[in-house]
Amino acid sequence: MPASYAYLGPEGTFTEVALRTLPEAATRELIPYVSVQSALDAVRTGEAEAAFVPIENSVEGGITTTLDELVAGAPLMIYREVLLSITFALLVKPGTRLSDIKTVTAHPAAQPQVRNWLRANLPNAVWESAASNADGARLVQEGRYDAAFAGEFAAARYGLEPLETGIHDAENAQTRFVLVGRPARPAAPTGADKTSVVLRQRDDHPGGLRDLLGEFATRGINLMLLQSRPTGAGIGNYCFCVDAEGHISDRRVAEALMGLKRICLEVRFLGSYPRADIGVEEVRALPRGTSDGEFVEAADWVARCQDGRF
Length: 310
Ligand SMILES: O=C(O)C(=O)Cc1ccccc1
Fold this sequence. Notes:
This protein is an alpha/beta fold. The chain has 3 domains: 1-85 and 175-184, D-Maltodextrin-Binding Protein, domain 2; 88-167, Periplasmic binding protein-like II (D-Maltodextrin-Binding Protein, domain 2); 185-309, Alpha-Beta Plaits (2-Layer Sandwich). The chain is 27% helix and 31% strand. The strands form 3 sheets. Strands 1, 2, 3, 4, 5 and 11 form a 6-stranded mixed β-sheet that branches. Strands 8-7-9-6-10 form a 5-stranded mixed β-sheet. It has a 4-stranded antiparallel β-sheet with strand order 13-14-12-15, sandwiched between helices. The N and C termini lie far apart (61 Å). Bound molecules: 3-phenylpyruvic acid. 3-phenylpyruvic acid binds next to helix 1, strand 3 and helix 5. 3-phenylpyruvic acid is lined by residues 8, 13-15, 54, 57, 86, 107, 109-110, 132-134, 175. It comes from Streptomyces adustus.
């Protein structure tokens, strides 16, 4: 049996479409799971080699179920990311007209992307959340709801037809998906990489968040995601999910993580992996003094000073 990848199912999710763009998916058995949690648990128990799940979208921000799973529980690591442009179709049973639709469903992350369309076209429809967009389509097939927002490609699979296509409140809405596995050595740097960490502060003090961000700023590291999530330990208790430019094997990134390790209660390393948004040729030039060579030179100089050889 080939190694398997778990993904947020059922068949026909955007997640499945994004997963199939990864070359390595062609050599794996792809197994749909009913939730992000169950897909990630399949990795934790060893049932699946890796899981592919949505983590962020450009309209609403972080997909909180995924972030919370990565923040807590047995540690997992991100190995790859995929960006997918998303537009929705309104899927219905053949023959349904817009005026017949009283209930609509989709994944909660879909709602902010179709809100204006709903207001303009189905202002009185009741919204119910589904476990995924394809699951919403399945529920329409079962007769539980009148319509589902999902990928147009899901229609045939669930015996539905698209009543409307190309629904997206925001132009260029994208969702980011990640391939998550058990902790192991990250892939070698490509020159266009991203590092994800979760930071938990030691104590509550003025400028606490600035102290964390300062570790990145002084080393010229640009941040691509900063999302606070409750730790569950009471009101006002948050940890921070951070995506930073660079790879843990870059000196500036390693030094920033060391700085954070010294001042945080906990730093959870979630991986260094190739960026999906740009290629090596588009990576911005490093700020002066932050290249590996400059870090090595500075460390050598300190060593010489300690030896009295400057
Ligand atoms: O993959 C899906 O179809 C999902 O349900 C997750 C999702 C939700 C909203 C936009 C893109 C993906």
